[in-house]
């Protein structure tokens, strides 16, 4: 594991320590071989045993979405099933809020599953003999909640996914996207603290998948659950995850934020995934922001020109005393106009963005070649982004995150402007 | 020149079995087996009494109605004709006796078979254990166990029902086991993931979803018990089987045929109705078995296929 394994800021909700799951005869021997670094194929050839999960440790903070991404056979489904012990782990500790799940007896485990955890499945796993409403009620019914109360709760959960009108329909009558929303509502109805999602959107069409992803993110905004999300789709992982673990042959290859993973893949395996990632959707404006070079309308043109030359930038932001941007001065305009007032030279249609905007939304703004004003929520100028650095980041140049402030590498643009 | 072992020595297995049954099983366990008879006798007696007590016109109305509700108009028409025909042929009383025998046998098959099937579905060891027993029950010719049954239970209609139960029980167990094992793993996982107990899992998820297969087992059990009717008559069971049996004994082709026709009519009717119930209970068509639902089942199924 490389970077990004720093414990999240909030208190840890899920802690997994050195978890192993071996399918096969001699678990101890297999674990020894795994620890010795033998490959999965090799171990299987000699012992007929597979370590589906091999020495996995992870920490998920409260309210975080932690995505485990891996191809089929990488052990990700086994890992998530170990967390609620649908599959018994062979070795290791799993702590939910500090409680050791592995040590729990059957009653405590059932209690935990009924009250704290819920799960969403790849093929929805809706009960075909129950209506949508009864499906959503299931977790509550199992818990022994009286019918009227659980019906109300189920309807509220269905409302959250926009399906309250379908409560009395059998789930088979719904489309795939709707069925998975029911699956989601069934998970939500029990007010879980931790949601386990096993490739929940993999069986859906791409467009619908995007919709339900958005819906999940919107729900998470309100509910702040702790979510463990399994997927084989890196794009989905990047879209949804606060942090992502890339899993291969039962191990975590890399753990990090989407930006960390795309910017610095730990090895060739991860790099193979990130190669065709749309980097414009992963990186956000804030990553590139630098201190903005500003002038006020009161400054004279000579000062502005000098600042431009000094810093070799294509333009300066003009701000009012409150810090709100008024417009932009381009280097070319400054050079041609002798001593006009800045307010006359200033262009008022300056490119602007917010720090959390994805780069892809700002290609148009970049095309003008002028520094992009990054505004905070109150509309004040927060920082500035040089469009060339946007393209450098998209091109995947190493170390673009730490590029020195403007100057040298901005020269080509400056040259073009002159 | 001897070319086989039996020229020197024959294993006296037949003697052993005879001793086992006659000198050990019968004297020591007869009371136990007689006690087993009691519940069957009660159910059978009550049922037979009720069926024979009900006036014939009630059947003319009720049987087609049940058939219509369960299986639709064509089967209802068949049911009406069958009821009329059976009376017309003068074998109504025999039919009712046979029907009560069959219902009793099937009821006990369900009471025993479903729980055993559920246990078999839960435990591979138990399933492995009962498998050879079921194989024997299904392949051994019924005539073989008629004699011990007579020795243990005596002669009469109740021993006939017991022989029928032995013969008809295996599909109930097998298909219950199969149905529960066939429930999708992800659905069972979903149940467990939401904290269901084993009992809740069984009754909320596994049994309802296995119901269609279990009903197929019931249907098979029913058909097998009908095919035992004549054999059961050999040890003193009455009804249509006796009609066939006595016809056979006197070479009275007409009489034997009457009994045969009665059995066939009863078999077709029961088969269609239980099959339709099984379809209606199929797990994936929602749960309400309303008139409308049952009538328009065909339409609904094509709807589903279109999607």
From TrEMBL, chain A:
Pfam families, sorted: ABC_tran, CBS
Any single biological process term in GO: amino acid transport
Keyword Cell membrane tagged: yes
Localization annotation: Cell inner membrane
Topology within the bilayer: Peripheral membrane protein
Catalyzed chemical reaction(s): a quaternary ammonium(out) + ATP + H2O = a quaternary ammonium(in) + ADP + phosphate + H(+)
Leader sequence segment: none
Gene3D superfamilies (UniProt xref): CBS-domain, P-loop containing nucleotide triphosphate hydrolases
Domain ABC transporter intervals: 31-274
UniProt EC number: 7.6.2.9
Residues covered by the CBS domain: 285-345
Molecular-function annotations in GO: ABC-type quaternary ammonium compound transporting activity; ATP binding; ATP hydrolysis activity
Top-level lineage group: Bacteria
GO cellular component, as recorded: plasma membrane
Broad enzyme group: translocase
Keywords, ordered alphabetically: Amino-acid transport, ATP-binding, CBS domain, Cell inner membrane, Cell membrane, Membrane, Nucleotide-binding, Transport
PROSITE patterns tied to this protein: ABC_TRANSPORTER_1, ABC_TRANSPORTER_2, CBS
NCBIfam families in alphabetical order: proV
Similarity comment: family membership: Belongs to the ABC transporter superfamily.
Self-association state and partner proteins as the record states: The complex is probably composed of two ATP-binding proteins, two transmembrane proteins and a solute-binding protein.
Name of the protein: Quaternary amine transport ATP-binding protein
From TrEMBL, chain B:
Coiled coil: none
GO cellular component terms attached to this protein's record: ATP-binding cassette (ABC) transporter complex
InterPro entries: MetI-like, MetI-like_sf
Subcellular location: Cell membrane
GO biological process per UniProt: choline transport; glycine betaine transport
Domain ABC transmembrane type-1: from-to ranges: 95-274
Cross-referenced Pfam families: BPD_transp_1 (PF00528)
Record's keyword terms, sorted: Cell membrane, Membrane, Transmembrane, Transmembrane helix, Transport
GO molecular function: amine transmembrane transporter activity; carnitine transmembrane transporter activity
Tagged with keyword Cell cycle: no
Protein topology in the membrane: Multi-pass membrane protein
Main location: membrane
Record-annotated membrane-spanning stretches: 50-68, 75-92, 98-121, 142-169, 222-246, 253-270
Protein family: Belongs to the binding-protein-dependent transport system permease family.
Full protein name: Proline/glycine betaine ABC transporter permease
Species the sequence originates in: Halomonas urmiana
């Amino acid at each position: 594991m490389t970077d990004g394994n720093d414990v999240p800021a909030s208190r840890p909700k899920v802690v997994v320590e050195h978890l192993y799951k071996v399918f096969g005869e001699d678990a101890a021997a297999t674990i020894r071989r795994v620890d010795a670094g033998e490959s999965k194929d090799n171990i299987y050839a000699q012992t007929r045993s597979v370590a589906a999960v091999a020495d996995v440790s992870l920490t998920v903070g409260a309210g975080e979405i932690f995505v485990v991404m891996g191809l089929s056979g990488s052990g990700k489904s086994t890992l998530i099933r170990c967390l609620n012990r649908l599959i018994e782990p062979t070795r290791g500790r799993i702590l939910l809020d500090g409680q050791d799940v592995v040590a729990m007896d059957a009653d405590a485990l059932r209690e935990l599953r009924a009250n704290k955890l819920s799960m969403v499945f790849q093929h929805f796993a809706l009960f075909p003999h129950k209506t949508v409403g009864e499906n959503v009620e299931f977790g509550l019914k199992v818990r022994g909640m009286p019918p009227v109360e659980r019906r109300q709760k189920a309807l509220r959960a269905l409302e959250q996914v926009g399906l309250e009108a379908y409560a009395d329909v059998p789930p088979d009558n719904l489309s795939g996207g709707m069925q998975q929303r029911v699956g989601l509502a069934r998970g939500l109805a029990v007010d879980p603290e931790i949601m386990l999602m096993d490739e929940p959107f993999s069986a859906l069409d791409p467009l619908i998948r995007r919709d339900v992803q958005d819906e999940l993110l919107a729900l998470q905004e309100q509910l702040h659950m702790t979510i463990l999300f399994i997927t084989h789709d890196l794009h989905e992982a990047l879209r949804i995850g606060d942090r992502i673990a890339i899993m291969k042959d039962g191990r975590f290859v890399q753990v990090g934020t989407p930006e960390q993973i795309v910017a610095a893949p730990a090895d060739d395996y991860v790099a193979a995934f990130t190669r065709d990632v749309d980097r414009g959707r992963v990186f956000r404006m804030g990553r590139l922001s630098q201190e903005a070079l500003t002038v006020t309308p009161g400054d004279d043109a000579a000062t502005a020109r000098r600042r431009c030359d000094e810093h070799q930038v294509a333009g300066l932001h003009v701000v009012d005393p409150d810090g709100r941007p008024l417009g932009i001065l381009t280097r070319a305009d400054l050079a041609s106009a002798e001593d006009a007032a800045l307010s006359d030279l200033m262009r008022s249609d300056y490119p602007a963005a917010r720090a959390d905007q994805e780069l892809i939304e700002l290609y148009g703004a970049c095309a003008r070649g002028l520094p992009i004003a990054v505004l905070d929520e109150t509309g004040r100028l927060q920082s500035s982004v040089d469009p060339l650095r946007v393209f450098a980041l998209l091109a995947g140049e190493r170390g673009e995150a730490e590029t020195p402030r403007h100057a040298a590498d901005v020269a080509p643009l400056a040259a073009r402007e002159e | 020149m001897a070319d086989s072992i039996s020229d020197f020595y024959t294993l006296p297995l037949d003697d052993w079995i005879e001793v086992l049954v006659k000198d050990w099983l019968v004297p020591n366990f007869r009371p136990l087996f007689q006690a087993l008879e009691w519940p069957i006798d009660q159910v059978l007696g009550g049922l037979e009494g009720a069926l024979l007590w009900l006036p014939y016109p009630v059947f003319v109305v009720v049987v087609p109605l049940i058939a219509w509700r369960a299986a639709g108009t064509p089967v209802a028409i068949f049911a009406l004709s069958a009821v009329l025909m059976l009376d017309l042929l003068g074998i109504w009383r025999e039919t009712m006796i046979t029907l009560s025998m069959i219902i009793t046998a099937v009821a006990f098959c369900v009471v025993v078979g479903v729980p055993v099937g559920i246990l078999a579905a839960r435990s591979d060891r138990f399933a492995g254990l009962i498998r050879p027993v079921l194989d024997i029950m299904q392949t051994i010719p019924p005539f073989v166990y008629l004699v011990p049954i007579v020795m243990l239970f005596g002669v009469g209609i109740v021993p006939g029902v017991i022989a029928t139960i032995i013969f008809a029980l295996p599909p109930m167990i097998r298909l219950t086991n199969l149905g529960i094992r066939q429930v999708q793993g992800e659905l069972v996982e979903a149940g467990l993931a939401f904290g269901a107990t084993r009992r809740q899992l069984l009754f909320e998820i596994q049994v309802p979803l296995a119901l269609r297969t279990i009903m197929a087992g019931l249907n098979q059990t029913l058909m097998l018990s009908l095919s035992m009717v004549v054999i059961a008559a050999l040890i003193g069971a009455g009804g249509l089987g006796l009609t066939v049996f006595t016809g056979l004994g006197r070479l009275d082709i007409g009489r034997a045929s009457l009994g045969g026709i009665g059995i066939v009519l009863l078999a077709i009717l029961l088969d269609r109705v239980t099959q339709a119930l099984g379809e209606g209970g199929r797990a994936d068509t929602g749960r309400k078995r309303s008139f409308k639902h049952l009538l328009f089942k065909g339409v609904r199924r094509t709807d589903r296929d279109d999607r």
